[in-house]
Every structure is written in structure tokens, then in C-alpha cells.
Design goal:
The complex is a heterodimer of chains A (157) and B (665). Chain A has 157 residues and is an alpha+beta fold. Chain A has five helices and five strands. Chain A folds into two domains: 4-77, Beta-grasp domain (Ubiquitin-like (UB roll), Roll), CATH 3.10.20; 87-152, DNA polymerase, domain 1. Chain A has helices at 24-31, 87-94, 104-117, 123-129, 140-152, and strands spanning 4-9, 12-18, 50-53, 56-59, 72-74. In chain A, strands 2-1-5-3-4 form a five-stranded mixed sheet, sandwiched between helices. Chain A is globular. Chain B is of the alpha/beta class and 665 residues long. In chain B, the strands form seven sheets. A seven-stranded mixed sheet of chain B has the order 11-12-9-18-15-16-17, sandwiched between helices. In chain B, strands 4-3-2-1-8 form a five-stranded mixed sheet. In chain B, strands 21-20-19-14-28 form a five-stranded mixed sheet. In chain B, a hairpin with a 2-residue loop joins β11 (244-248) and β12 (251-256). The chains are: A alpha+beta (157), B alpha/beta (665).
């Protein structure tokens, strides 16, 4: 299979040179130095590696770079491009929905994707929609609160 | 750092060094200037105000999610009367910060927090002295607020006052501090100081570190604990361009210029290892603990068991090591940067003076990142290959080669009088540890012992240490005793609790929970767990439902009352308390390391279940703010009440007493 030579990330086309079998997570982190996307397990169980692919949350640790094609990727670094925080980022800070923060970029992108699918989710729907994300510090109730607050403020932007 | 280096490194200004309590060597330095090269050797923190007015606090404590960076900033801001944003906190860097034992045992708040307040208070006094001297005014006429010293119409910023100065002062801890009743910054819910860096992904954890020319390393670990390498065929690996193989006895590693090549390289190694006959497994280990303990209890006690569990920090262990001649720099996530420096010095055979450990704020630890496993691997490989090396552990390595919270066997017995007074109490803990072994209830003549044993797995610290195991058994047994005389579990605890602080949290939790008015319905149950550890008190109430067909327990609601003296940051404290409930729920209900034949059987997150959104109950926290008491740490103790509260609630729901952790085994 031909090597992958470009990737649309955070609004621009980036030159890369990667074996198509490599995982998107590694290409983002190791080739493009976008380290806001985290490695947590490499088995799709924790969602710390979540990015948006064409607006939908995806686990970059299980996404082969060869399957991405011309799809548009947004990482946490691309969520506040002009330095102005996304409403979901604001909501996480406001609800103190983090401790060590290692899961936070993935949580925020997962939450953004959730609100695109369901702009006004109930607490139960949030818990179900976010259940693939692990926060070992146990901030789940705060994350639910943050997502509810962001939904109220149009956090689906 | 040597005394003479301070100002050359930091620039001019004023510097306050906090020395150890009641040390005669430093008593003579009280309030005085440092002379000559008399740099105190056991300084615990220092604070520098530069000629620009920039305030920097240096501490060997680290940030692992417990919000020490914020609380310590609050400490300095409170005493210096400056905005939080004007303070920079340098933490856990062995070249820049004073030695520290480690961010362990909930000691940051009781020990470092007051030290930094003292440093800041002293700096404030020095600034007032400078202003009084410069302006020739009485010190009493001066005020310090908002980063300025003022006297009537006169005003100067800290930078204006420190310009051209090189003042260093070592002080012992006895400096007047702002009393809690007058706190303006301390005791308030300030937001996480570096929250923005985290929500934007800008913060670099150890896992994210890179150095120019860096290689990615992987280890070849043995298939069983304790196995030795018989033979190694690395010919296929060595054909991969740019890959290097490192072998030193049983230590086998590869390094590659790209991460996926390192994975290919380690997979291409062919190794033969000795076979190890494992002594026990996760099913039989509890008998093993008793057999291997020196001494123990007699017959007639009731056994409880506690499984080994894993920390599962979401950021696995990680390190980047770089050599410059015989000098080594390592970036790693650890709770003990100075401890890791010593480990590196020992393993690499160099002086600790030549080792620099940098600890970026880390993706959690929970007691699991006390040592330098990844750091040592990275340093050894980097030395062998002549490049900086990154060694990031995978999840399965984290779940296999880290250390675990100890498993344990606990045997308990006791008697109770018809009025609820406990008349006999015997408690024996095998292997899991002595923390919180002693009952906080008033029981004359009680007998409590910890029996050291052998552990088939590598074991170590975990949030709360053995306090979770000991509280689980003690509070479950309290429940058993209460039921044996048909006494309400709350009344039974109050009957035997004489410690007012313990009574206060029990009453606060049960009151908020509505314990007295609880209504029993089929399949629902209510439970209490309370206790004391490391200077703080907790009581937890839980309501559960148990599915009659599957037996699956769902924790519906919890109330936790917590008291740790004067509260430093209420919102961050609530976050810790709630987080401890959720983490503790995992160990209570389903977390367990399975092992057999010298192998971990569930070393993947798909097989090792941790709490998720759907497991989280409604949590209400009640904080008892005791401004009259010194602040204790809060990262650990809130975890100890949830397991017995759930176990007791399951008994209430089903009549079935489960005497093991996890409860759903």
C-alpha cells in the first residue's frame, strides 16, 4: 500500500510520510507533535485518544492512518484555534471537571461530538454517550455537569 | 543549588529559605541574614521575589491531579497579598527545588502548605522592612496589599522595592501567619491555576516529552515473574534499519528512530526464558498470606479477604532520558522525583549530583508512581545507544510490571453487650498493611495486629494504603455486631464512638442521607462506613439496589461527610472527596488483579474493569470546615468509607454478608 503523504488536521493540510498501517494517534503525536491527544490504553477502552473525524468522535489509537483519507481531523489543539476557548472547554473549567487532566482532551472532544448528535442530552444520555471514556480520578459527575452546562450555552458549536 | 548560585541563577531580589522546625543549626539564623557559604542543607522550600517583582515559589512537591499546584499558590498569595497570577510555582525539579521526601501520605497540606505560607509571610515582612528603610518611615505605617507596599500617598510595587537588592534570609518555621478566620485567598474555591493548559492540550505530560535525536525504546520482559533469560536471538531485529538492541543480563531492550519500528523490533526478538513454578495464585493467595506470616491469630475468628488491585493511572509510566557526558537528565512522572534521582544514581553508578530529574505535572499516581522504573529503563538504554531515549509504558506493561495495592487476609472477632457496648475486639491483618489498623471507637482491651507476610506480586503504596482494607473489615464487622443484637448500625456506632470528630462526621453524613427516615424496599439496602486516618475523618452512607436475578449491585446514592481541619479550597476538596468515592467504588465492587502461573491474567482494560460514567452514583459531599484545627491532607482518607458502606448496604438489601473485596467477585 502506498505511503500516506498528507493529512487534514485542524484546518490545514499537513505533509506527512507514514506507513498506512500506522495508527492515527501515533502520527498525530509523534510525527505532527500534537501531543494533546493522549495514549491511555491502545485498545480502545479509555477514549483518551479521542479526536473528531469529520465532526464525529473517533478513537485514534484504533484508526489506521490509511483509512483516514481526506477526512478532516480536529484535535484538542484545533478546538480553540484563535485562543478563544470552545464553550465545552469553558464548561469543563467552570465545573472543575478535571483533576490530573490526562483524560480531559479526549473527554472534551467526545462531549463536543455527543452534543452534535444530541444537542440537549439528559444526564442518563450523557452517561451512556460518554461511557467509553475513563477518568480514573473519578470526575464523572462533574463532567456530566459540564456537558449539561455547555448544552445550555450552545456548546454543540 | 548552592547558596552562591542562587542570585546568579535567579537574578537579584529577595529570597526566603524555609528551614526545618526546631533545628538548632538554624535557630541561630532566626531572622538573620545568611553569612558566607552557610547554605542550610535541609531547606524545605524557597521563595524568590525578583527585581521585576515576579514571585516564584520552589517546592519539591509535585502535582498529580490533587491540585497541590493551586493550593500551594493560594498559600503564597494569602500571605503576600498578591493576585494568584503573579505567582509561579516551580515543583518537583531536582535541580531547582529543595529536596523533598515525596508527594505521599497526604503530607502536602499539613507540611508544605504551612511552610510556603511562612516563606511568603517572611518575604512580606522583608518587603515592609525595605520600604520602611527606603522611605524612612515607621514600619507600623506601612500596608501590604495587591502586590504593593503603601504608606499614605507613597506606594511601591514589589519589583521597585527589590530592585538592586540581593537579600537572602533563612527562617525557621515560627513566623506569624494570617489566622484562618482572616483568610481571603486561602479557604476559597479558586480555580485550578493551570486548567487552561490542560483543556487546550497544551500541557506536556512525561508521556508527551520529546528531545532532539531521541529514540523510542521498548523492553522485552519475561513471560513470567522471576524468569531468567536463557538465550536471545536478535538477528531479525538487527536487520531493521536504525534499530539497536541492548542486552545486559536479563535486561533486554530495543531502541528505534521511530515508535512503530521499536514495536516491530521488539516483536522480532526471539528469546527463551527459564520456567518458574509459581508458589500461589489469586484464588489461593489468602491461605498463602497466613502460612507465610510469622505468627498469627488462633481459631474462632472470622476471615475477610482483600484482593490485589492496580492503580491504573491514565497516564502510564513514562520517561525520557538524556545523557550529556556523565550527566543525566530524566523527565518522568513520579511522586518522588528525589527518590527517583537516588534510584537512577544507584542503578547507573553515578553520583546523585549528576542526575537531574524533572517532573512535569503528571497524569495521576494514586500512590502508584513512587519509583523510577521507566526512568531507569530509559537511562540505561540511552546510555547504551548514545541517544536520548523515550520509554513510555503500554497499558499492559502498566498492569503487569508496576506494583499493586497489596492483597490481604484479615481475621476479626469480638463481642458485644446487650446495650451495644463492644466488650472484646480482636483484629489481625495479614500482608495488606498496618495503616488505620487501630479502631477509632472506644474499645478497652482491644487487640490489633499486623502480620507481615510474603507477597507473590510486587506490592506497594496505593491511595490510603491499607486503610481501605482495614476500614472495610472493621466497619463490616461493626455492622455484623450491630445486627447480632438487632441494633441500628448508626446507634451502634454512636454508642461506641467517643471521639467527637468521628461522631460529627457520622452525624453529618447520616443526617444529610436521611438515615433515620430511610424506607426499605425490596432489593434496596442502606449502609454506613466511617473512620479516621492521616488527620482526617470520614463517614459515608450508601444506598444500593441488588438485582435479584443477576446479583449485580448498583450504587444509587452516596453521602460523604469529611473533616480535615481548616478547608484550604472547598471546591477542590469536594472534587477529591467525590473522586475518592468513585475510585473506591471500583475496588469495592469489581477491581481485582487475577494471577496464576507467575502471570497477570487481566492486564488489559478490557479485562480489568475500572469505574465508568454508568457506575457513578449520585454523590453529595458535606465538608465540615474546622477553622480552629490545622489543615490535614485530603487525597486519601475519603476513599476508606465507601467499600464498607456498600458491603453493609448489600447485606441490608439481601441478608447476605460478603466478606471479601471486591464484593462482586
Amino acid at each position: 500500500m502506498a505511503r500516506v503523504t498528507e493529512l487534514h488536521v485542524n484546518g490545514s493540510m499537513r505533509r506527512i510520510d507514514a506507513d498506512p498501517e500506522r495508527m492515527l494517534l501515533s502520527v498525530l503525536r509523534d510525527d505532527l507533535d500534537l501531543t494533546g491527544t493522549k495514549f491511555g490504553c491502545g485498545e480502545g477502552q479509555c477514549a483518551a485518544c479521542t479526536v473528531l473525524i469529520d465532526g464525529v468522535a473517533a478513537k485514534s489509537c484504533l484508526t489506521k492512518i490509511g483509512a483516514v483519507g481526506s477526512k478532516k481531523i480536529i484535535t484538542i489543539e484545533g478546538l480553540a484555534p484563535e485562543g478563544k476557548l470552545h464553550p465545552m472547554q469553558e464548561a469543563f473549567l467552570e465545573a472543575d471537571a478535571l483533576q490530573c487532566g490526562y483524560c480531559t482532551p479526549g473527554m472534551i472532544l467526545g462531549a463536543v461530538s455527543l452534543l452534535r448528535r444530541n444537542p440537549n442530552p439528559s444526564e442518563t444520555e450523557i452517561a451512556a454517550g460518554m461511557n467509553g471514556h475513563i477518568c480514573r480520578c473519578g470526575t464523572y459527575p462533574r463532567v456530566v455537569r459540564a456537558i449539561r452546562a455547555a448544552a445550555g450555552k450552545g456548546g454543540r458549536a | 543549588m548552592k547558596r552562591r548560585d542562587f542570585f546568579s541563577v535567579l537574578g537579584g531580589g529577595i529570597l526566603v529559605l524555609i528551614t526545618a522546625d526546631e533545628d538548632p543549626i538554624y535557630a541561630q539564623e532566626t531572622g538573620g541574614q545568611l553569612r558566607g557559604g552557610a547554605m542550610p542543607s535541609d531547606v524545605s522550600a524557597w521563595l524568590h521575589i525578583a527585581e521585576s517583582g515576579a514571585i516564584t515559589v520552589y517546592t519539591g512537591k509535585v502535582e498529580v491531579g490533587q491540585n497541590a499546584r493551586t493550593s500551594l499558590t493560594q498559600a503564597a498569595a494569602e500571605e503576600l497579598r498578591v493576585p494568584l497570577s503573579s505567582i509561579r510555582m516551580v515543583m518537583g525539579d531536582t535541580a531547582l527545588t529543595p529536596f523533598d521526601q515525596g508527594t505521599v501520605g497526604s503530607q502536602t497540606t499539613p507540611r508544605m502548605w504551612p511552610q510556603i505560607r511562612r516563606a511568603a509571610a517572611s518575604a512580606r515582612e522583608m518587603l515592609l522592612d525595605l520600604a520602611a528603610q527606603k522611605w524612612g518611615v515607621d514600619r507600623a505605617a506601612l500596608a501590604c496589599a495587591d502586590g504593593k507596599v503603601t504608606a499614605g500617598a507613597r506606594s511601591a510595587t514589589f519589583g521597585e522595592l527589590t530592585k538592586g537588592e540581593k537579600l537572602a534570609r533563612a527562617i525557621p518555621s515560627g513566623v506569624a501567619l494570617v489566622p484562618p478566620a482572616d483568610w481571603k485567598v486561602a479557604g476559597t474555591s479558586l480555580a485550578k491555576v493551570n486548567g487552561r493548559e490542560i483543556v487546550t492540550g497544551a500541557h506536556r505530560y512525561a508521556y508527551d516529552m520529546k528531545r532532539p535525536g531521541m529514540m523510542w525504546a521498548k523492553m522485552l520482559y519475561p513471560p513470567q515473574f522471576g524468569a531468567s533469560l536463557v538465550s536471545l536471538d536478535s538477528s531479525a531485529t538487527e536487520k531493521i534499519a536504525g534499530v539497536k538492541v541492548v542486552r545486559d543480563g536479563n535486561f533486554v531492550a530495543v531502541a528505534a528512530p521511530e515508535p512503530h519500528l521499536a514495536e516491530q523490533a521488539v516483536a522480532a526478538l526471539k528469546a527463551e526464558w527459564t520456567h518458574v513454578d509459581a508458589e500461589t495464585d489469586s484464588q489461593r493467595v489468602f491461605d498463602y498470606f497466613k502460612q507465610n506470616a510469622g505468627g498469627g491469630a488462633g481459631a474462632g475468628l472470622t476471615p475477610y479477604t482483600v484482593a490485589y488491585i492496580a492503580h491504573v493511572p491514565l497516564e502510564p509510566r513514562a520517561a525520557v532520558a538524556e545523557w550529556d557526558g556523565d550527566k543525566l537528565t530524566v523527565w518522568t512522572g513520579t511522586q518522588r522525583p528525589f527518590g527517583v534521582r537516588s534510584e537512577l544514581a544507584q542503578h547507573l553508578g553515578i553520583s546523585a549530583d549528576n542526575v537531574h530529574v524533572v517532573m512535569p505535572d503528571t497524569g495521576s499516581g494514586y500512590g502508584g508512581k513512587h519509583n523510577g522504573d521507566a526512568a531507569i529503563e530509559a537511562a540505561r538504554i540511552a546510555k547504551a545507544v548514545g541517544h536520548p531515549v523515550k520509554r513510555n509504558w503500554t497499558r499492559d506493561e502498566e498492569l503487569t510490571w508496576a506494583y499493586f495495592r497489596p492483597g490481604g487476609l484479615i481475621e476479626v472477632g469480638g463481642k458485644v453487650a446487650p446495650d451495644g457496648t463492644i466488650t472484646e475486639w480482636e483484629f489481625h491483618n495479614y500482608n495488606s498493611g498496618p495503616s488505620a489498623l487501630n479502631s477509632p471507637y472506644h474499645i478497652p482491651g482491644k487487640k490489633e495486629q499486623f502480620h507481615q507476610s510474603r507477597s507473590p506480586l510486587r506490592q506497594g503504596s496505593y491511595r490510603g494504603l491499607a486503610a481501605t482494607a482495614n476500614h472495610f473489615v472493621r466497619e463490616s464487622w461493626m455492622d455484623e455486631l450491630a445486627h447480632s443484637i438487632r441494633m441500628d448500625p448508626l446507634d451502634f456506632r454512636l454508642k461506641n464512638a467517643t471521639d467527637e470528630r468521628l461522631r460529627a462526621v457520622i452525624l453529618a453524613a447520616t443526617d444529610k442521607f436521611g438515615w433515620r427516615g430511610r424506607k426499605k424496599t425490596a432489593g434496596h439496602g442502606f449502609g454506613i462506613g466511617a473512620g479516621f486516618e492521616k488527620g482526617s475523618y470520614v463517614a459515608t452512607c450508601a444506598e444500593v439496589s441488588v438485582d435479584p436475578n443477576t446479583g449485580t449491585t448498583k450504587v444509587l446514592r452516596t453521602v460523604v461527610a469529611f473533616e480535615c481541619g481548616a478547608v484550604v479550597n472547598p471546591e477542590h476538596l469536594r472534587n477529591q472527596v467525590e473522586g475518592a468515592i468513585i475510585m473506591g467504588l471500583g475496588g469495592a465492587l469489581f477491581e481485582r488483579i487475577d494471577f496464576r502461573d507467575g502471570k497477570i491474567l487481566n492486564n488489559r482494560l478490557a479485562r480489568y474493569r475500572v469505574p465508568r460514567f454508568s457506575d457513578a452514583p449520585a454523590i453529595e459531599s458535606v465538608l465540615l470546615d474546622r477553622k480552629d484545627l490545622v489543615s490535614a491532607g485530603a487525597g486519601e482518607t475519603p476513599i476508606v468509607g465507601i467499600a464498607p458502606a456498600i458491603g453493609n448496604a448489600i447485606f441490608d438489601a439481601t441478608g447476605r454478608r460478603i466478606r471479601r473485596l471486591p464484593l462482586e467477585a
